[in-house]
Amino acid sequence: MKRVLHVLATQIEFRMLLVVIVVMVSLSLSSPYFFTASNLYNVMDQSVVTGMVALGQTLVILIGGIDLSVGALAGVTGIVLGLACHAAGLFGGIAACLGVGALAGLINGVIVTYGGVAAFVVTLGMMAIGRSMAYVLSGANSISDLPPGLSDISTGTVAGLPVDFACLLAAYALCWLFLTYAKGGRTLYAIGSNVEAARVAGLSIALWSVLAYVVSGVMSGVAAIFLASRILSIDPIGGSGLELDAIAAVVIGGASLFGGRGSIIGTLLGGFIMVFIRNGLNLLNVSPYWQGSAIGAIIVAAVLVERLLSGGRRGG
Amino acid sequence: MHFVGARDAIRSGVAMVMQETSLAPDLSVLENIMLPRLGMRGALRWGRMRAQARTLLAEFGEGTGLTPDTQVRDLSIAQRQLVEIAKALALDSRILIFDEPTAALSPHESERLFDIIRGLAARDRGVVFVSHRLEEIFSVTDRVTVLREGHVVAAGVPTTSLTQPELVRLMVGREVSDIYARQGAANTAGSEDVVLRVRGLASPPRVHDVSFEVRRGEIVALAGLVGAGRSETLETIFGLRRPTAGTIELHGRPFRAHTPREAIRAGIGFVPEDRRGQGIVPDFTVRENLMLAHLGEHVGPGLGYDVRDASVRRLLDLLELPQQRLLDASMLNFSGGMQQKVILARWLLLEPRLLLLDEPTRGVDIGTRSSIYALLRRVAAGGIACVVVSSDFEEVIGIADRIVVLSDGVSVADIPGRLLDIERLAMFAAPRSSAERTHTVLEALAAAHGGTTYWIDIDGPRLFCFDRVNGARAAEPGFVGGGFPEIEETRIPRALSATAEGLVAEADGRLHSLLVPVHGRRGHRLGLVGMTFAEVPSGFDAETVRRRVMSELGVQSEVV
């Protein structure tokens, strides 16, 4: 018992898991529809897009940065996907989409790391540019008649799970391995926790800082692909507000906005909590106008509780 | 009393001079001095405040170069310290706390400060003076309270009732003769194997011309005042700063680290000055903190921690750190000494061939301090070349085989540690700006009379030369600036061992020398100003020169 309490007190992932279970149980008690297969599939679907973006966002927040451009980048990479699919087929489209995401992330990372401009400012600029390019490239029209193969990733299943959800879990597993067992992963934590100490110890600060933004850009492209696969249509407004959902998932998952603290599993669970609550509010027929207030209150409360539990060392 | 914030303390009449200056670099000297006024009620009267600031700055005497409108960013560290002091004085508080105020000041500036402190006491102000420098405590305080590891071990003891050894015993809790663990002359020889050779290294704004070398198994200290460019020299060698001139040789081959990683892979370790800011990763476990430099050195995508496990265990025993603390989630609740041991272990783990240490005992309790000294000796004995930067002259003399003195970014002397005492080290370390007055006098004398002029000090059979100027018809006295030969080895042994006030001729009758003792304001010795001629100029009057030196550098002067 003592050991269990200790694990609960020290490991944020376990606290998060507890919260997820509590939320699931209370939702299934208050709505008969929650624990049905179709609703659970629906929930899984909804968690994919935010989850993919939140993964990249976690890496950026771990080094003490922030990426506000992810939503707009999902928009522009989606348009690139659509245009390139028409020109070069499905795989050409995916390659172009991810390439543009990587390039935008690279620009973010290089300006933040080498130019010394605050991440907030650089990615705010990229956010405006990304959204504007989405409109410019698409002529403000949505793109439809995408290759039907694209929808396979959201309709197919693997081992009983939707393909897109399985992809999400795989991406998080890979990221967890990287953050726990790879030099680059530990370097990200060290940069966020004390960049000067990391520098003196000879870690490659610039390389990994830039790569965090590149991954965040690529994951925006990945999100765009899953977004497009559901309805086989792409709109230049796609991905709006995604950056806030992603940051919320990371923060609810226990990461510190000052960097150095956080976990990828926490982010995954943080994303689940948000999706569950949204889904629950829908099932309970709460007005969509009220949902924003509920989610907002939950974000602040989650971080406040986490701060109190962790001894108030550093706030998120 | 219990103050709820700095403003509350200031209102109650308590002001504090911080050890590390808390000035706003973008504001002017005037604005900084008057900063606490912003937290008070009432309008700001700049005209009156400017006049007050001028008066305060004048108290430091001429030659500080401080005006109310200079931007603090452009000031030297010593000047900033003076501004910090003026800021506390401006509050006209009833109680002033000085926390190690002399760490950046030359001996002359320190003396000036002590005069001010005595003036404050005479005006019924209470002064709390925090210091670990014994001479200062005995020269400026009336009563002493000794703190050891957060406990008061002696409260309000009259200074005059104490002797230096007694005070040290109170501070340390035992006899200190063994704290530096010096074992005879075992280490002083070093080997012939030069690990690091630095020639004419420059890295503005602090490092201008630094040269020294370190042999295998040797501990070399870079001594000097705060701001003399010691840390920056280490950082340049380690690849944290770019050199603009000079060469660095490692094991006889030219070496230039562009990044710390290159330095680490070349076998260099670096224990930085600011443990919290540059050493500890607060969100890492103790084990991972230990492994941080390993991670920097490690090639490949993984962590490779397991490879080091055996060496970690061995190191922990050596450092007397308990094994189970390795798993602690953070090292922030360790004592300063423990933290420093972990940072040291971080580098020893890599088995470096050259270890650079910047203030390795700052904020470390005296018990751990002596174990760090012992460890350094073992490390050096194991063949690692060590460069230690320290502001604590006593520590420098205690620990180093050789002392390289830095002053305003220039290496001015390279002397075996056993030959120096604290006062002479302080004279070498005086900033060039403070020594300028002496230099000007030496130049004027050389220009007026020809020959060679110099500023030296004599300690038993040895002399230390701080500065030397050649005039027309220069004569070679047998020593140069930064030199420390035995008197018998010089060309003017007779003059140096005589106590005569006039010209002294050497045995062979060729060189004639005049030596004039210089004393500080409170009568303590500041060495000798001398001149040597191959041929005494016609009409040379020793007494006139003696008076001139006395009047320009002697008791009436404020800054040497």
Keywords:
heterodimer, A: 316 residues, mainly alpha, ABC transporter involved in vitamin B12 uptake, BtuC, two-stranded antiparallel ribbon, 13 helices, B: 560 residues, alpha/beta, Rossmann fold, Beta-Lactamase, six-stranded mixed beta sheet, 20 helices, 22% strand, globular
Order of helices and strands of chain A: HHHHHHEEHHHHHHH
At the first level of CATH, the class of the largest domain in chain B is Alpha Beta
Structural class of chain A: mainly alpha
CA radius of gyration of chain A: 19 Å
Strand content of chain B: 15-25%
Largest interface: A-B, 23 and 32 residues
CATH class of chain A: Mainly Alpha
CATH topology of chain A: ABC transporter involved in vitamin B12 uptake, BtuC
Count of folded domains of chain B: 3
CATH topology of the largest domain in chain B: Rossmann fold
The second-level CATH architecture of chain A is Orthogonal Bundle
**How far is the N terminus from the C terminus of chain B?**
43 Å
Could you give me the name of the CATH homologous superfamily of the largest domain in chain B?
A: P-loop containing nucleotide triphosphate hydrolases
Low-pLDDT segments, ≥5 res of chain A: 312-316
- State the distance separating the first and last CA atoms of chain A: 29 Å
Overall, the morphology of chain B is globular
Number of helices of chain B: 20
Query: Count the strands of chain A?
Result: 2
Strand order of the largest sheet of chain B: 11-12-13-8-14-15
